[in-house]
Design brief:
The chain has helices spanning about 1-20, 30-40, 60-65, 110-115, 135-140, 155-165, 185-195, 215-230, 245-255, 260-265, 265-280, 285-350, 350-370, 370-400, 450-465, 475-480, 480-515, 525-550, 590-605, 625-645, 675-685, 695-710, 715-740; strands at about 45-50, 85, 90-95, 100-105, 125-135, 145, 170-175, 200-205, 240-245, 520, 575. It is of the alpha/beta class. Strands 4-3-5-2-6-1-7-8-9 form a nine-stranded mixed β-sheet, with helices on both faces. Strands 10-11 form a two-stranded antiparallel ribbon. The radius of gyration is 51 Å and the shape is elongated.
């Protein structure tokens, strides 16, 4: 029993806590009903309330049951307070005033002062409760009787009655046989009781003795219909309709006339009442929990009315922020991917073996011909600038997108012109022109004229490109132009080696600086949303706690518990993408390796790679993977541009763009027939149906670009022209469908 009491106490506390979240006014009907139901839930007594319209004999009936004139009765409505009759060793009255004053007196005379209506038929406003203690065996079993003011008199009295009925385990509805309730009154009463889970109701008809026998039979038939239509939930075998002539019953009890008491119907009613109470009292939860279920439903409904709008608002905010964050993250990852790819290409280009392979021969020839600066500007600088731009452009895209730290330019200085000192002229060179003097200002170079100069250039090409396996070492030592060629090769290798080392170091530092550019700060949650999130969590916790307590007492609910709302996780954080670094590994070439070894043997110079001098021949067709690489780069740029457009739309402005960016949505004007024809033709060019989605349009465009890219047909003039024409149509169709 104690364990059950604790469960009910927890349930009552949960009801009160949940209702507190609703911020109800103290005088509101729902608030008063909640307090009444909670107090009744843990009340150990079994309460029986008697109510009905004024002057129906409620107090008379209770006095008859008690066997004396305990309660005030008169010809006018007298009961002006809810009078609780409890067991006591002697008859006494206790009255609690609203200011906390307690008035305790022997007998019941105090009721005439505090518990009846005044001359204006008003209840006393200073009375909080009225209790009468009486030594009656029925009350000694833990039963309390509740005498309520008459209904249909004043709203204030009706409100008091409705509140008290919620705290009654059994309700006795007193009816006047002379003027039964109308159908509307009965339905209103039934709906009010059932709406609050009050189903244990007994109807007692009074004043039937004042009617003629024929009238009594007619009224009795109507009363049966009234009782049956209510569908009271009483123990099986008991009726919910009884006849008691209250005043004759009271007189019979006061005189001790048992026969008269029986003929008034009082004895039969008391017997049935005691048996019903004997069954319901041990299992009070079956009576009280429906009241709890009814009031809990109202609380849950009110809580949901507060929870759901806040939850929708917060979810909308979270979805918007998450979408914006996802777009930014995707853009950051794409930009970083492009940046890392470009850095990898530049790093690969700066690798000394690659530099030697690609530039050593031309640079050595240019040095021998005193054209090093021109070659450096037209060749090395041009290639480096292109690669540097490919790296830096990603950072400027990031800056434009995220508005974080402005990027710095990537500056890799070019090597100065190598200094070479010519060896002493051999004595057997009479048939060759004399070498000129050292002659190029700050970067030392030289001029070789006539056959000697031509021989040096030829030797450079010869030494770096021929597969020398069995050469006369003595001849190589005595060849002047071989010696000069080796000096040029060595000078260029040293120059490119320094250039490579310095460039790779600068590039590594630049990569680290890029982390401050390709990033964005996740926006801070507004204080208003934070407060709403906290309020929502409290409301949901109260709702879920109430569900748990209802489950403990086997009260089912149509609602599911709310899941815990996620906390805002973007506060004071920066997102920096860190995908795997993209690197391009040089392909192995055993033939090149063999040439490197043979060249080293022939010249005595450490050569990392070889390069075939440019010759007058047609440009080779690009490899398929090169076209794929160009296409991937184009896709990255297109995807970032699309996301940038989304971020600049009114719903997805970045925090730093909120006050500076104003975007107007394009209005959808009706299309002319000419425009419709263009769209239809565009779908046909891309090989699509007219209802194709944008994703299908994009995929078809990608497929056609990969198939008809003009670079795939270099050296095939007719096919290349056909591809160019095809791509012109494809690009035009894609533009039309993208803008429709």
């Amino acid at each position: 029993m104690k364990q059950q009491y604790e469960v009910y106490k927890d349930l009552a506390d949960s009801l009160k806590s949940a209702s507190a979240l609703l911020n109800l006014e103290g005088k509101s009907q729902l608030h008063q009903d909640i307090i009444t139901v909670c107090n009744h839930l843990v009340n150990p007594s079994f309460r029986i309330a008697v109510f009905g319209p004024f002057n129906h004999g409620k107090s008379t009936l209770l006095n008859a049951m008690l066997g004396n004139r305990t309660l005030p009765i008169d010809l006018i409505p007298t009961t002006g307070a809810a009078i609780t009759v409890k067991y006591g060793s002697d008859v006494r009255t206790r009255i609690m005033l609203r200011d906390g004053t307690e008035i305790s007196r022997n007998g019941t005379e105090a009721l005439q002062q505090f518990a009846i209506l005044d001359g204006n038929r008003q209840m006393r406003k200073d009375v909080a409760s009225v209790e009468v203690f009486c030594p009656h065996p029925f009350l000694e079993t833990g039963v309390e009787l509740l005498d309520l003011p008459g209904t249909n008199d004043r709203d204030e009295q009706d409100n008091l009655i409705q509140e008290q009925l919620l705290s009654a385990d059994l309700v006795i509805q007193l009816l006047d046989a002379r003027k039964l309730m109308t159908l509307g009154e009965r339905e209103n009463l039934r709906d009010w009781l059932l709406d609050r889970g009050i189903k244990t109701v007994i109807f007692v008809v009074n004043f039937l003795n004042l009617l003629e026998p024929d009238e009594q039979k007619q009224v009795q038939n109507r009363l049966v219909f009234v009782a049956e239509s209510f569908r009271s939930e009483l123990p099986p075998g008991f009726s919910n309709l009884y006849r008691v002539d209250a005043l004759p019953a009271l007189r019979a009890r006061l005189k001790g006339d048992v026969a008269a008491a029986n003929s008034s119907g009082l004895a039969a009613f008391e017997t049935a009442l005691q048996n019903i109470v004997g069954i319901l009292q041990p299992n009070r939860s079956s009576v009280r929990l429906p009241r709890v279920q009814a009031i809990a439903y109202k609380i849950q409904l009110s809580l949901k009315a507060k929870i759901d709008p806040i939850a929708i608002e917060i979810k909308s905010f979270d979805d918007k922020e998450n979408t914006k964050s996802e777009i930014k993250q995707k853009a950051a990852n794409l930009i970083y991917k492009g940046f890392a790819t470009s850095v990898g290409e530049l790093r690969d280009w700066l690798a000394l073996p690659k530099l030697l392979t690609k530039y050593q021969a031309d640079a050595a020839v240019a040095l021998a011909e005193n054209n090093f600066k021109v070659w450096q500007k037209n060749t090395l600088k041009k290639d480096l600038t292109q690669l540097q731009f490919a790296v830096v452009k990603w950072l400027y895209q990031a800056y434009e997108f995220f508005q974080e730290e402005r990027p710095q330019d990537l500056i890799i200085p070019f090597p100065s012109e190598p200094e070479v000192t010519l060896p002493s002229k051999p004595s057997n060179t009479d048939d060759l022109s004399e070498p000129g003097s050292i002659a190029v200002g700050g970067g030392i170079g030289w001029l070789l004229g006539g056959p000697v100069g031509a021989a040096v250039v030829a030797s450079i090409s010869y030494l770096l490109n021929k597969n020398i396996q069995k050469q006369d070492d003595q001849l190589a030592k005595e060849s002047y132009h071989h010696q000069v060629a080796k000096l040029c090769i060595t000078a260029i290798e040293d120059s490119l080696s320094g250039f490579s080392s310095q460039g790779l170091s600068i590039l590594a530092e630049y990569e680290q600086k890029a982390e401050k550019v390709i990033c964005f700060e996740l926006s801070q949650e507004p204080l208003e949303i934070t407060k709403k999130r906290e309020s929502l969590q409290q409301l949901q916790n109260g709702f879920n706690q109430l569900l748990q307590e209802l489950e403990k007492v086997k009260i089912l609910s149509n609602y599911q518990p709310y899941k815990e709302i996620p906390k805002y996780s973007n506060t004071n954080r920066k997102y920096s993408p860190q995908p795997e670094r993209v690197q391009t590994s040089p392909k192995k070439d055993t033939g090149v390796k063999q040439q490197q070894e043979n060249t080293a043997k022939d010249t005595g110079v450490k050569v990392e790679s070889v390069f075939t001098p440019p010759q007058a021949k047609a440009s080779p067709s690009p490899r398929k993977e090169e076209v794929e690489a160009k296409f991937r780069d184009w896709e990255l740029n297109e995807e970032i541009a699309r996301m940038k457009a989304e971020m600049q739309s009114p719903g997805f402005k970045t925090d730093k763009q909120q006050n500076t960016t104003q975007t107007n949505e394009a209005s959808n004007q009706p299309k002319t027939q000419t425009e419709k024809d263009k769209i239809t033709r565009a779908y046909s060019i891309l090989g699509l149906q007219a209802n194709a989605s944008q994703a299908e349009v994009k995929q078809a465009y990608r497929t056609l670009v990969k198939k008809w890219h003009p670079d795939l047909f270099v050296g095939k003039a007719q096919l290349q022209k056909q591809a160019q024409d095809k791509m012109h149509l494809v690009n035009e169709a894609y533009t039309i469908l993208s803008e429709k």
